Amino acid sequence: MARVIGIFSGKGGVGKTTLVANLGAALTHVFHKNVVVFDSNIHASHLGLHFGLYDDLPVTLREVLKQRTPITQAVYIHPPTGLRIIPAPLNFDGLNLTKEKCKSLVGQVKGSYDIVILDCAPGLGSEVLAPMCAVDEAVVISTPDLASLADTLKTIELLKKMKKTVLGIVLNRYKHQKYELTPEEVASTTNYNILSVVPEDSGIPESISKGSPVVMSHPNSASSKVFKKLSARLLNQPYEDASLWGKLLGVFKRKKTSSQLPLQPVVQPQESLKSEVENLDNVRAELVDEIKTELKKEIKERIRKRLREKLNE
Ligand SMILES: Nc1ncnc2c1ncn2[C@@H]1O[C@H](COP(=O)(O)OP(=O)(O)OP(=O)(O)O)[C@@H](O)[C@H]1O
Ligand SMILES: [Mg+2]
After folding, report:
1. CA distance linking residue 171 with residue 191, whole number of Å
2. Rounded to whole angstroms, how far apart are CA atoms 241 and 70?
3. Which is the closest atom of ligand 1 to the Cα of 12?
4. What per-residue confidence (pLDDT) applies to 37?
5. For atom 23 of ligand 1, which residue has the closest CA?
């Protein structure tokens, strides 16, 4: 049975779709896995664009949701990688992907794949609860700033309440600037591993404009290597950079101790999520209040720390 992994973020625009497209492409092209990526962000669906698929497709989730066309007819192949894509329409017209529907659609495809990756809506609303119900494992992506971190904490809390396995955090668009939160700060605030730090890379917007994931269009770019390494990590496999310089670095690394621990799920999925699903709306309201209070404390403390650091400089 396939692993079903969701890519979530509290804040919008932090790189979920980019991560889904590149993980899907790398897992298929480099690691030869049978993977399908599913665009569950039906109100702002962009996944197809990362593969050059536009709105002239005969079948998308629109037809699946409106006309009950089988989901298997909405699966497209990306020939350069062999990745399968289930796109949503660019035009949202009264579609609604409920929790039950999302779970059922994922259930209908997962038997044919090793891994199903869901591209999710941002935030904590009903649009994100649907894919949250459908996945077993989750990766949370954040940018290195307080606003994104605050929303990341809320997303993690919600995933934990729903008994999902949170694999860790991907920190995206890192520029090594003093004003940014460091990976260590994000890890210590969230209590989760940083799975990868993706650098700011102009190759990413360029690749999207070409309709090809950066792991294909710029395979040796810094971000591309991070996406491939992360794919290996998700498979608990070692990754060796195929370039000559990468091979040399690999030799040095092997000579040191193998410091990378296998993924340790912090939260184990439960057998039955039925009761959790029923109580979701209440849980969410309670959580938002709880988290708001905690966050205010956390942010105040962080600002104090920053000020102290500034005064000491
Ligand atoms: N590491 C990066 N370097 C440079 N640009 C990036 C990087 N990651 C993402 N971007 C850019 O950020 C923009 C937003 O990325 P993306 O669409 O993947 O975010 P998202 O989280 O899926 O957004 P939404 O919440 O709207 O679904 C894109 O235009 C992409 O080009
Ligand atoms: Mg997106």
Report:
1. 14
2. 40
3. 25
4. 98
5. 13
CA of 1 to the centre of ligand 1 (A): 30
Give 252 Cα–ligand 2 centroid separation in angstroms: 37
Domain locations in the chain as residue ranges:
3-239+247-312
Give 161-201 pLDDT, tens digit per residue. 999 999 999 999 999 999 999 999 999 999 999 999 999 99
Q: Which ligand sits closest to the CA of 12?
A: 1
- Contact assessment for residue 258 and residue 156, using Cβ atoms and an 8 Å cutoff: no
Q: Which DSSP symbol is given to 113? A: -
3-239+247-312 fold: Rossmann fold (3.40.50)
Contacts of 134 (CB under 8 A, 6+ apart): 4, 6, 40, 99, 102, 103, 105, 106, 107, 118
Q: Which of 18, 20, 169 to mutate to test the pocket of ligand 1 (most atoms within 8 A of CB)?
A: 18
